[in-house]
Protein backbone atom coordinates (compact mmCIF):
# COMPACT_ATOMS: atom_id res chain seq x y z
CA UNK A 1 0.00 0.00 0.00
CA UNK A 2 1.39 3.39 -0.98
CA UNK A 3 1.57 6.60 1.01
CA UNK A 4 -1.91 7.61 -0.13
CA UNK A 5 -3.54 4.81 1.82
CA UNK A 6 -5.45 7.40 3.85
CA UNK A 7 -7.45 8.33 0.76
CA UNK A 8 -8.69 4.75 0.37
CA UNK A 9 -9.87 4.30 3.94
CA UNK A 10 -13.63 4.10 4.15
CA UNK A 11 -14.32 3.13 0.54
CA UNK A 12 -17.62 1.31 0.17
CA UNK A 13 -17.68 -2.30 -0.95
CA UNK A 14 -17.60 -3.05 -4.67
CA UNK A 15 -21.17 -4.31 -4.59
CA UNK A 16 -22.43 -1.08 -2.98
CA UNK A 17 -20.43 1.10 -5.36
CA UNK A 18 -21.75 -0.69 -8.41
CA UNK A 19 -25.31 -0.60 -7.10
CA UNK A 20 -24.97 3.17 -6.80
CA UNK A 21 -23.55 3.50 -10.30
CA UNK A 22 -26.24 1.25 -11.74
CA UNK A 23 -28.98 3.31 -10.10
CA UNK A 24 -27.47 6.53 -11.38
CA UNK A 25 -27.18 5.07 -14.87
CA UNK A 26 -30.85 4.16 -14.94
CA UNK A 27 -31.99 7.49 -13.52
CA UNK A 28 -30.01 9.86 -15.70
CA UNK A 29 -29.43 8.18 -19.05
CA UNK A 30 -32.61 9.60 -20.57
CA UNK A 31 -32.05 13.18 -19.51
CA UNK A 32 -28.39 14.11 -19.29
CA UNK A 33 -26.45 11.93 -21.73
CA UNK A 34 -24.65 13.71 -24.55
CA UNK A 35 -25.97 12.91 -28.02
CA UNK A 36 -23.33 11.09 -30.06
CA UNK A 37 -23.94 11.16 -33.79
CA UNK A 38 -21.92 8.01 -34.53
CA UNK A 39 -23.63 5.38 -32.37
CA UNK A 40 -27.05 5.20 -34.03
CA UNK A 41 -27.83 1.56 -34.75
CA UNK A 42 -24.88 0.35 -32.67
CA UNK A 43 -25.99 -2.57 -30.47
CA UNK A 44 -24.00 -1.08 -27.60
CA UNK A 45 -25.51 2.41 -27.93
CA UNK A 46 -27.61 1.98 -24.80
CA UNK A 47 -24.60 1.21 -22.65
CA UNK A 48 -22.61 4.07 -24.18
CA UNK A 49 -25.43 6.53 -23.56
CA UNK A 50 -25.98 5.34 -20.00
CA UNK A 51 -22.32 5.57 -19.00
CA UNK A 52 -21.87 8.93 -20.72
CA UNK A 53 -24.79 10.22 -18.64
CA UNK A 54 -22.90 9.46 -15.44
CA UNK A 55 -19.51 10.64 -16.69
CA UNK A 56 -17.93 7.20 -16.82
CA UNK A 57 -17.07 7.62 -20.51
CA UNK A 58 -16.57 10.72 -22.63
CA UNK A 59 -16.82 11.48 -26.31
CA UNK A 60 -13.85 12.18 -28.56
CA UNK A 61 -15.08 15.62 -29.62
CA UNK A 62 -17.28 16.95 -32.36
CA UNK A 63 -20.31 15.09 -31.04
CA UNK A 64 -18.62 11.76 -31.68
CA UNK A 65 -18.04 8.82 -29.35
CA UNK A 66 -15.71 6.81 -31.58
CA UNK A 67 -17.25 3.38 -30.93
CA UNK A 68 -14.68 1.53 -33.04
CA UNK A 69 -11.68 3.36 -31.62
CA UNK A 70 -9.33 1.20 -29.55
CA UNK A 71 -8.65 1.87 -25.86
CA UNK A 72 -5.17 2.03 -24.33
CA UNK A 73 -4.30 1.06 -20.78
CA UNK A 74 -4.14 4.64 -19.47
CA UNK A 75 -7.58 5.38 -20.89
CA UNK A 76 -9.01 2.19 -19.48
CA UNK A 77 -7.68 3.00 -16.02
CA UNK A 78 -9.79 6.16 -16.13
CA UNK A 79 -12.89 4.30 -17.30
CA UNK A 80 -12.69 1.55 -14.70
CA UNK A 81 -12.01 3.99 -11.85
CA UNK A 82 -14.94 6.15 -12.95
CA UNK A 83 -17.09 3.02 -13.14
CA UNK A 84 -16.48 2.32 -9.45
CA UNK A 85 -17.13 6.00 -8.70
CA UNK A 86 -13.63 6.74 -7.40
CA UNK A 87 -12.85 9.68 -9.65
CA UNK A 88 -12.65 11.97 -6.62
CA UNK A 89 -9.88 9.85 -5.15
CA UNK A 90 -8.09 9.85 -8.49
CA UNK A 91 -8.20 13.65 -8.43
CA UNK A 92 -6.63 13.66 -4.97
CA UNK A 93 -3.81 11.41 -6.23
CA UNK A 94 -3.21 13.21 -9.51
CA UNK A 95 0.15 14.60 -8.34
CA UNK A 96 1.52 11.18 -7.28
CA UNK A 97 3.88 9.73 -9.88
CA UNK A 98 2.85 6.11 -10.55
CA UNK A 99 5.44 3.57 -9.38
CA UNK A 100 6.24 2.02 -12.75
CA UNK A 101 9.51 1.95 -14.63
CA UNK A 102 7.87 3.73 -17.55
CA UNK A 103 6.03 6.32 -15.44
CA UNK A 104 7.37 9.06 -17.71
CA UNK A 105 5.28 7.62 -20.53
CA UNK A 106 2.05 7.74 -18.51
CA UNK A 107 0.22 11.00 -19.32
CA UNK A 108 -0.13 13.20 -16.26
CA UNK A 109 -3.93 13.34 -16.59
CA UNK A 110 -3.95 9.57 -16.00
CA UNK A 111 -1.70 9.49 -12.91
CA UNK A 112 -4.51 9.59 -10.37
CA UNK A 113 -6.56 6.97 -12.19
CA UNK A 114 -3.60 4.63 -12.55
CA UNK A 115 -2.68 5.08 -8.88
CA UNK A 116 -6.20 4.21 -7.71
CA UNK A 117 -6.56 1.28 -10.10
CA UNK A 118 -3.23 -0.16 -8.98
CA UNK A 119 -3.84 0.35 -5.28
CA UNK A 120 -7.22 -1.36 -5.48
CA UNK A 121 -5.68 -4.29 -7.32
CA UNK A 122 -7.63 -3.63 -10.51
CA UNK A 123 -4.66 -2.94 -12.77
CA UNK A 124 -1.29 -4.65 -12.61
CA UNK A 125 2.03 -4.08 -14.28
CA UNK A 126 4.25 -6.31 -16.36
CA UNK A 127 7.16 -8.46 -15.08
CA UNK A 128 9.68 -5.77 -16.04
CA UNK A 129 7.93 -3.25 -13.80
CA UNK A 130 6.37 -1.30 -16.66
CA UNK A 131 2.75 -0.25 -17.09
CA UNK A 132 2.78 0.24 -20.89
CA UNK A 133 0.13 2.99 -20.91
CA UNK A 134 -0.07 3.15 -24.69
CA UNK A 135 -0.69 -0.57 -25.14
CA UNK A 136 -4.20 -1.41 -26.27
CA UNK A 137 -6.44 -3.24 -23.80
CA UNK A 138 -7.74 -6.56 -25.08
CA UNK A 139 -11.20 -7.96 -24.43
CA UNK A 140 -9.75 -10.46 -21.95
CA UNK A 141 -7.75 -7.80 -20.12
CA UNK A 142 -10.78 -5.52 -19.87
CA UNK A 143 -12.88 -8.37 -18.51
CA UNK A 144 -10.19 -9.27 -15.98
CA UNK A 145 -9.87 -5.72 -14.67
CA UNK A 146 -13.63 -5.27 -14.41
CA UNK A 147 -13.94 -8.57 -12.54
CA UNK A 148 -11.29 -7.37 -10.10
CA UNK A 149 -13.13 -4.08 -9.72
CA UNK A 150 -16.35 -5.77 -8.61
CA UNK A 151 -14.53 -8.30 -6.42
CA UNK A 152 -15.36 -11.36 -8.53
CA UNK A 153 -11.76 -12.43 -9.04
CA UNK A 154 -11.56 -14.95 -6.21
CA UNK A 155 -10.72 -18.65 -6.46
CA UNK A 156 -14.33 -19.77 -6.65
CA UNK A 157 -14.85 -17.81 -9.86
CA UNK A 158 -11.44 -17.61 -11.52
CA UNK A 159 -10.44 -21.16 -12.37
CA UNK A 160 -7.79 -22.40 -14.78
CA UNK A 161 -5.10 -20.68 -16.83
CA UNK A 162 -5.04 -17.20 -18.32
CA UNK A 163 -6.94 -16.01 -20.29
CA UNK A 164 -9.52 -18.78 -20.35
CA UNK A 165 -10.11 -18.46 -16.62
CA UNK A 166 -11.16 -14.81 -16.82
CA UNK A 167 -13.06 -15.32 -20.07
CA UNK A 168 -15.09 -18.15 -18.51
CA UNK A 169 -15.86 -16.04 -15.46
CA UNK A 170 -16.78 -13.03 -17.59
CA UNK A 171 -19.27 -14.93 -19.72
CA UNK A 172 -20.69 -16.74 -16.68
CA UNK A 173 -21.33 -13.49 -14.82
CA UNK A 174 -22.73 -11.70 -17.84
CA UNK A 175 -19.93 -9.25 -18.59
CA UNK A 176 -19.94 -10.28 -22.25
CA UNK A 177 -23.68 -9.98 -22.80
CA UNK A 178 -24.63 -7.71 -25.72
CA UNK A 179 -21.00 -7.52 -26.84
CA UNK A 180 -21.34 -8.44 -30.55
CA UNK A 181 -17.97 -10.18 -30.78
CA UNK A 182 -15.73 -10.91 -27.79
CA UNK A 183 -12.28 -12.08 -28.91
CA UNK A 184 -10.02 -12.50 -25.93
CA UNK A 185 -6.70 -11.61 -27.54
CA UNK A 186 -7.80 -8.71 -29.74
CA UNK A 187 -7.92 -5.04 -28.68
CA UNK A 188 -11.25 -3.90 -27.28
CA UNK A 189 -13.14 -1.05 -28.88
CA UNK A 190 -14.64 1.89 -26.99
CA UNK A 191 -18.09 0.45 -27.65
CA UNK A 192 -17.15 -2.96 -26.22
CA UNK A 193 -15.52 -1.35 -23.18
CA UNK A 194 -18.67 0.68 -22.49
CA UNK A 195 -20.88 -2.41 -22.77
CA UNK A 196 -18.67 -4.50 -20.47
CA UNK A 197 -18.42 -1.67 -17.94
CA UNK A 198 -22.20 -1.26 -18.00
CA UNK A 199 -22.63 -5.01 -17.54
CA UNK A 200 -20.19 -4.93 -14.61
CA UNK A 201 -22.19 -2.14 -13.02
CA UNK A 202 -25.35 -4.23 -13.06
CA UNK A 203 -24.06 -7.76 -12.40
CA UNK A 204 -24.79 -9.41 -9.06
CA UNK A 205 -21.42 -10.46 -7.63
CA UNK A 206 -20.86 -14.04 -6.54
CA UNK A 207 -20.23 -14.44 -2.81
CA UNK A 208 -16.82 -15.75 -1.73
CA UNK A 209 -17.92 -19.05 -0.26
CA UNK A 210 -20.00 -22.15 -1.18
CA UNK A 211 -23.25 -23.06 0.49
CA UNK A 212 -24.03 -26.45 2.05
CA UNK A 213 -24.65 -27.91 -1.41
CA UNK A 214 -21.30 -26.76 -2.76
CA UNK A 215 -22.78 -23.94 -4.82
CA UNK A 216 -21.55 -20.37 -4.69
CA UNK A 217 -24.25 -17.91 -3.77
CA UNK A 218 -24.91 -14.35 -4.83
CA UNK A 219 -24.99 -11.50 -2.33
CA UNK A 220 -28.76 -11.93 -2.38
CA UNK A 221 -28.48 -15.55 -1.32
CA UNK A 222 -29.64 -17.05 -4.60
CA UNK A 223 -27.73 -20.31 -5.33
CA UNK A 224 -25.74 -20.38 -8.53
CA UNK A 225 -22.66 -22.04 -9.91
CA UNK A 226 -19.54 -19.91 -9.92
CA UNK A 227 -18.90 -20.93 -13.53
CA UNK A 228 -21.57 -21.96 -15.97
CA UNK A 229 -23.94 -19.09 -16.64
CA UNK A 230 -26.08 -18.70 -19.73
CA UNK A 231 -24.31 -15.77 -21.35
CA UNK A 232 -23.33 -16.28 -24.98
CA UNK A 233 -19.61 -16.23 -25.76
CA UNK A 234 -18.99 -15.58 -29.45
CA UNK A 235 -15.21 -15.10 -29.46
CA UNK A 236 -12.19 -17.33 -29.30
CA UNK A 237 -9.23 -17.76 -26.97
CA UNK A 238 -6.04 -18.06 -28.97
CA UNK A 239 -2.39 -17.13 -28.92
CA UNK A 240 -1.95 -16.54 -25.22
CA UNK A 241 0.65 -17.61 -22.72
CA UNK A 242 -0.73 -18.43 -19.28
CA UNK A 243 2.16 -16.48 -17.79
CA UNK A 244 1.06 -13.20 -19.34
CA UNK A 245 0.27 -10.46 -16.88
CA UNK A 246 -2.47 -7.86 -17.28
Describe the structure.
It is a single chain. The chain is mostly helical. Helices cover 37% and strands 4% of the residues. It is built from 9 helices and 3 strands; from the N terminus they run αααααααααβββ. It has helices at residues 5-8, 14-32, 45-53, 73-83, 87-92, 111-119, 139-149, 164-173, 190-202; strands spanning 206-210, 216-218, 223-224. The protein has a 3-stranded antiparallel beta sheet with strand order 1-2-3, with no helix packed on it. It is globular and about 40 Å long.
Radius of gyration: 17 Å
Largest sheet: 3 strands, antiparallel
Shape, per Cα inertia axes: globular
User: Mean pLDDT score, rounded?
Assistant: 76
Termini distance?
Answer: 19 Å
Order of helices and strands: HHHHHHHHHEEE
Task: Describe what is shown at a glance.
This protein is 37% helix and 4% strand. The protein has 246 residues and is mainly alpha-helical. It has a 3-stranded antiparallel sheet with strand order 1-2-3, with no helix packed on it.
Core attributes:
246 residues; mainly alpha; three-stranded antiparallel β-sheet; 9 helices; 3 strands; globular; disordered N terminus; disordered C terminus
